[in-house]
Amino acid sequence: MNSFELDTFLREHTFYEKFISSNIDPTNTNSLKSFIKNTKFDEYIMRKFPLPKGISLEKFFIDFNKKTTDVILNRMDDIVFVSHPRYTKTPEHHHNYIEMIYVYSGEFHQTVNGKNIVMKKDEVCILDTNAKHSIEETSENDIIINCIMSKKHLDDILLNRLSENDLISSFFIHAIYQSSDYNDYMLFKSGASEKLNKLMTDVLCEYFDTSPCSNEVINSYMIIIFYELLKIFQKQSNSENYYLLKNTKITDIILYIQNNYKDATLASVAEHFHFHPNYLNSIIKKFQGNNFTYVLQEAKLKKASFLLKNSDMPVIDVARNIGYENTSFFYKKFKEYYGCNPTEYRKK
Questions:
Q1: What pLDDT is stored for residue 67 in this prediction?
Q2: Separation of CA 106 from chain center
Q3: How far apart are CA 232 and CA 102, in angstroms?
Q4: Where in the chain is the domain with CATH 1.10.10.60?
Q5: Which portions of the chain are predicted below pLDDT 50?
Q6: Long-range contacts made by residues 195-201, C-beta under 8 angstroms, separation at least 24?
Q7: Angle 292-310/327-338 helices, nearest 10 degrees?
Q8: What's phi and psi for 40, nearest 5 deg?
Q9: Tens digit of pLDDT for each residue in 78-87?
């Protein structure tokens, strides 16, 4: 299969799409039977949306609102590519597998964890195992590919090869091993990547036109695709962080830490300024010469020095007031910074 043949294949209507566009009431038994009898069931085209085995067409269409991808996954070991059916909405749901959504053509409108997301051609979204999403109705030109990956596939095939790339590996590790409390997603603005477009075309051609070594070829393509997505995401993050940094003064960040020294954490400050925590830490170190932990500790100790000089508050209460529950640790850090312990400092 070449790229032209793939495009023709993906744009052909599946039996299911023909049923949806017919507007037949699935509860009308006579109309349903007539449709099934008079509509060609093309097994070749249905490879992109395989129906569950062991169930009649009539039964399937009666239950056509059922999440068919859940049924599909139960039949596979590693990875499945499915063409999302056009002309219908999908209500909010979540899966027990990783799903990679690729916009082959047109647009894709979905809501993930309450957030509206519009995806353009060649963009990618990866949903973890508990992310809740609903899908708006798609049109003729909206060709959406769902890549469904089992936890076994990710664990055995991908994680070992992506172990050095914390960004994507961390996402997958959470999805596989902490799926009960993790429901994130990653959006890749990959529309300008000709390389990703070519890789996705190649892996789809291989999947829908298999050869004796297709499994190994597909696994290899997926490794390269994830490496490419990693590069796209890093570039995307750097661009977004540059825009945020350009509109945020480093003095604003330091002032925020100083004003919120008692409860501030790297994560909370990063969220407030809309930075990734690692990126925030790096820019603080670049402009201040020290990392976030040092800057926060400095803000606490300066507040402690003020309280020691301007109040009769006991040292233990000063320590607690600035966020130190361990008085011994407070003494140690105070002496490292001021060269004497809090009691000696107060007497100066």
A1: 45
A2: 21
A3: 14
A4: 248-348
A5: 67-76, 164-167, 175-183
A6: 195/228, 196/122, 196/124, 196/225, 196/228, 196/229, 196/232, 197/122, 199/224, 199/225, 199/228, 200/102, 200/104, 200/122, 200/145, 200/225, 201/3, 201/6
A7: 90
A8: -70, 130
A9: 788 999 999 9
Fold type of domain 3-241: Jelly Rolls (2.60.120)
Q: What is the structure's pLDDT at 136?
A: 93
pTM beyond 0.70, yes or no? no
Length of the chain: 348
Across 75-101, b (16+ Cβ under 10 Å) vs e yields eeebbbbbbbbbbbebeeebbebbbbb
Smallest CA-to-CA distance from 100 within 154, 34, 157 is with 154
Which residues belong to CATH 2.60.120.810 in the chain? 3-241
Q: Residue 234 is encoded by which pair of tokens?
A: 């890093």
- Model pLDDT, residue 208: 92
CA dist., res. 105 & res. 7, Å (int): 10
The CATH number that domain 248-348 falls under is 1.10.10.60
